[in-house]
Here is the input.
Amino acid sequence: MKAPNNLAETAGRGSLESWLNAAYESLKESGVDAVRVMPLAKKLNLARTSFYWYFQDREALLEALIERWKSKNTFNLITQSQAYASSITEAILNVFDCWLNSDLFDSQFEFAMRSWALQSPEVAKEIAEADAQRVEALRHMFDRFGFAHDAAVTRARSIYLTQIGYISMKTQEPIAQRMHYIPEYLKIFTGVDPQPHELERFYSRNGFTAI
Here is the structure.
């Protein structure tokens, strides 16, 4: 990727971020085949040649999309799994924030990446590596609270595969319905009932009021 030396050079060319954002939206809306220079130029109302001010070619743009996905979804999930918690229930609820806050984890982006992987061995490899990193981070989360190795692994896998199932199936449900099931999910994943104050904090920070 290239960057302009000053603001004057960006006139009529947009910006690196604008091209990347357009590619990101096109990937989510229509898949990787829609991420091409000419359609993006039309979307941005810019000349096709402007693209090459920022990216060497389409492959460079696709690589930038992969890096954005890693930074947003994988990094944030791992960070949430490492956040302070006084119990395993609170630790899992920190991770659950990812499923409810698109600033932390973009489920549409995740679905688009996994769809792309079906036609690209290179992207499939990136997905496999990310899956392994995420499950390992969740396993470490259980380790922190004294779970035996096999229990930590199976619980980590259960949490992760459940959410990937939600994404892959494009599951849609009202927020109230999803929140209604949270206590039972927690009991399945931890073996203990969540405390009311743990749920209240989770609901509050996700803008939900339990009835």
